[in-house]
Amino acid sequence: MISTALRLLAVAAMALGLALPAWAGTAKPVQKDGKTYFEIDGELFPALEPLGPPPIPKDNPQGVDADGWPLKNDPKVKLGHFLFFEPALSGDGSVSCQTCHVQGAGWALNSAISRSYPGQSHWRNSQSVVNAAYMSKLFWDGHTASLETQAPSAAKGLAGNGKQDMMTARLTVVPEYVEMFEAAFGSANNPIHDAWRALSAFQRTLTSTDSPVDRYLRGEEDALDEAQVRGMDLFNGKARCIMCHNGKLASDEKFYNLGLPRQPLFSNIAKNQIGFRSQNYGAGLPEEMFRKTKSDLGLYHRTHNHEDAGLFRTQPLRFIEYTPPYYHNGVMDDLFEVVEFYNQGGGEDYILKDFGYSTKTDRLKELNLSDDEMDDLVAFLEGFSGPEILVQIPLLPKPPERVSTK
Amino acid sequence: MTARGTTGTRWVLVWAGVSLVALGLSMGTAAAAEPRPLAPLPKAEMPDPAKVEIGKYMFFEKRLSGDGDRSCADCHIPEKGWAFPEPLSIGYPGTLHYRNAKTVMNVRFAKYFYWDGRLDGGNDLPTQARDAMTDSHFMAADGRIMGQRMKQIPEYVKMFKKAYGGEPHFGLIIKALGDFEKTLVSKNVPFDNYLKGNKGALSAEAKEGLALFEGKANCIQCHDGFMLSDGEAHALGVPVNPDIFEVKRYTTLRSQQMFLGTPNYRNLKSDPGFFGTEKNNKYFGTFVTPSLREVSKTAPYMHNGMLPTLESVVDFYNEGGGPAVNQDPLIKPLGLTAAEKGALVEFLKSLAGDDLGYRTADYSEDKRPPYELLKWVGQDN
Question: How far apart are CA B168 and CA B165, in angstroms?
Answer without folding.
Answer: 10
